[in-house]
């Protein structure tokens, strides 16, 4: 009597990813592991700030003005209740960092998503269509790149504030996200130029020529055949551009045309602390600046690792 054999269970997605080439590259890279841990801690603290933060820094009912300008806990005059000290309104710096990082990450990620959608679409169109369409779109990219990215973002955000002076927070955030996405240095132009170069190579491949011969529509060829083969460089660029978008948002908020004052980001916290930097209250601006550096540095290091991991020449 033969005993029935049960088929081996197929490994899950996480197991396959962990044992893949990219997973092995990640496990053997201490820099990537540390950067991922730092990024995860910052993201976790930002997303779950309502539960993780020890205080509610932007709830006026819980603020105590008598606790203003308290130094960090380990410094002389510090209060054990406020680990990183307080600002001029008595708000807990540690809690404010968590809430501020949430706004910065939200704006940065949303800006990158919008930039990817615009840049990838125009890059595919320019590379696949060629001719006058390609020339027009690339000259448009050259014109936008001739202006400093922060100047373009500042102009769009300023015009948005002027056109909608009494706009709601949602409209302000939309204008801010669009201003970062449309900026030349860290916006859609980088994706358009990268995708256009990759599309020029892919459109002459045999599988694209075969799809054309069989009568497949050009839009379907771009979406189903060309796009999946050019996503590698886009993923690497998007990872790196998250840090650029966060820094751009912090710069705009520091200049006063960023997020609303009642929803401060890390840039707003740095701008507030800058007023008291030379009066000896260094912690109000140093800790938000350090948080911004940690997020940007960890994301950049992850982007560098991903670029090397997806490069077959370095395997």
Question: What do you see in this structure?
Answer:
The chain has 315 residues and is mainly alpha-helical. It has a domain of 188 residues: MetI-like (MetI-like fold, Orthogonal Bundle), CATH 1.10.3720.10. The chain contains 14 helices and no strands. Helix 3 crosses helix 5, helix 5 crosses helix 8 and helix 13 packs antiparallel against helix 14. The longest helix has 37 residues. The protein is globular, with a radius of gyration of 24 Å. The mean pLDDT is 83.
Classified by CATH, the class of the domain at 107-294 is Mainly Alpha
SS summary, helix count = 14
| Structure summary, number of beta strands | 0
Shape: globular
CATH fold name of the domain at 107-294: MetI-like fold
SSE ordering: HHHHHHHHHHHHHH
Low-pLDDT runs: none
Largest sheet: none
* SS content category: mainly alpha
Instruction: Give the helix proportion (percent range).
Output: 55-70%
C-alpha-based Rg, rounded = 24 Å
Organism: Ramlibacter tataouinensis
Keywords: Cell membrane, Membrane, Transmembrane, Transmembrane helix, Transport
Membrane topology: Multi-pass membrane protein
Subcellular location: Cell membrane
């Amino acid at each position: 009597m033969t005993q029935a054999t049960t088929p081996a269970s197929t490994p899950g997605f996480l197991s396959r990813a962990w044992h893949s080439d990219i997973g092995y590259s990640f496990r053997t890279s201490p820099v990537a592991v540390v950067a991922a841990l730092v990024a995860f801690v910052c993201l976790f603290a930002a997303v779950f700030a309502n539960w993780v933060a020890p205080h509610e820094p932007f709830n006026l009912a819980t603020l105590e003005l008598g606790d203003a300008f308290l130094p960090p806990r380990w410094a002389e005059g510090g209060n054990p209740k406020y680990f990183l000290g307080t600002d001029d309104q008595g708000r807990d710096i540690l809690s404010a960092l968590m809430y501020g990082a949430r706004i910065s990450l939200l704006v940065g990620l949303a800006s990158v998503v919008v930039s990817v959608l615009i840049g990838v679409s125009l890059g595919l169109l320019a590379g696949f269509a060629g001719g006058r369409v390609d020339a027009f779109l690339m000259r448009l990219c050259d014109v936008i790149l001739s202006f400093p990215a922060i100047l373009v973002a500042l102009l769009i955000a300023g015009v948005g504030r002027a056109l909608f002076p009494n706009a709601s927070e949602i409209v302000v955030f939309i204008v801010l996200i669009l201003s970062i996405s449309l900026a030349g240095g860290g916006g859609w132009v980088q994706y358009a130029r990268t995708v256009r170069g990759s599309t020029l190579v892919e459109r002459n491949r045999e599988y694209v020529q075969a799809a054309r011969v069989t009568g497949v529509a050009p839009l379907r060829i771009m979406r189903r055949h060309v796009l999946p083969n050019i996503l590698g460089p886009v993923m690497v660029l998007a990872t790196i551009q998250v840090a650029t978008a966060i820094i751009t948002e912090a710069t705009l908020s520091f200049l006063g045309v960023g997020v609303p004052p009642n929803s401060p980001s890390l840039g707003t916290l740095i701008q507030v602390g800058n007023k008291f930097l030379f009066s000896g209250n260094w912690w109000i601006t140093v800790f938000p600046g350090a948080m911004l550096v940690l997020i940007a540095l960890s994301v950049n290091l992850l982007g560098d690792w991903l670029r090397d991991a997806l490069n077959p020449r370095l395997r």
